[in-house]
Amino acid sequence: MTLEVLLTTAPPQVQPWIEMHRRISPDRGADLIRSFAKMQRMSLDYEIPASALASISAPTLVMAGDQDLIPVTHTVEIWSAIARAQLCIAPGASHFWLQEMPDLANRIVLDFLVGQTMSALEA
Q1: Confidence class of residue 42 from pLDDT cuts 50, 70 and 90?
Q2: Strand locations in 1-123, DSSP E?
Q3: Looking at the whole model, is its pTM more than 0.70?
Q4: pLDDT score of 113 more than 80
């Protein structure tokens, strides 16, 4: 795949990632093809055994957008495998919703962290 093909065929949800990568990476996107290939492999090879997820004991907030590249059903599977995890599905949001909706993302993360702090103080 060439960079031109990547730029014209990448899903719309990935376009912000590509543009950000081109702006802030030290190579200004020269290595985009290799980075995108890694991202594709990661999206195709996402199988994490439920037992591995179940071993997570830290407070966990599983977050995704309802228009995410990762199906909401997969996000729910991850969330349901982690005891006491919290789930956040942001409405009208893509995989990059933390950048798209920073005020909402910050509020949710801060509420989660404050809740964890309060729980620790009460224990």
Answers
A1: low
A2: 61-65, 86-90
A3: no
A4: yes
> How crowded is residue 107: how many other Cβ atoms within 10 Å of its Cβ?
11
**CA nearest 48: which of 85, 83, 77, 72?**
77
Confidence at residue 114, expressed as pLDDT on a 0 to 100 scale: 92
| Phi, psi of 94, rounded to the nearest 5 degrees | -95, -170
Over the range 6-29, which residues count as b (16 or more CB within 10 Å of their CB) and which as e?
beeeeeebbeebbeebeeeeeeeb
* Cα–chain center distance at 107: 17
Decide: 96 and 17 in contact? Cβ < 8 Å. yes
CA distance 51 to 46: 14
Higher pLDDT, 17 or 108: 108
Q: How far from the centroid of its chain's Cα atoms is residue 113's Cα?
A: 18
* Calpha distance 88→76 (Å, rounded): 10
With a CB cutoff of 8 Å and minimum separation 6, the contacts of 63 are: 87, 88, 89, 90, 98, 105, 108
Amino acid present at 6: L
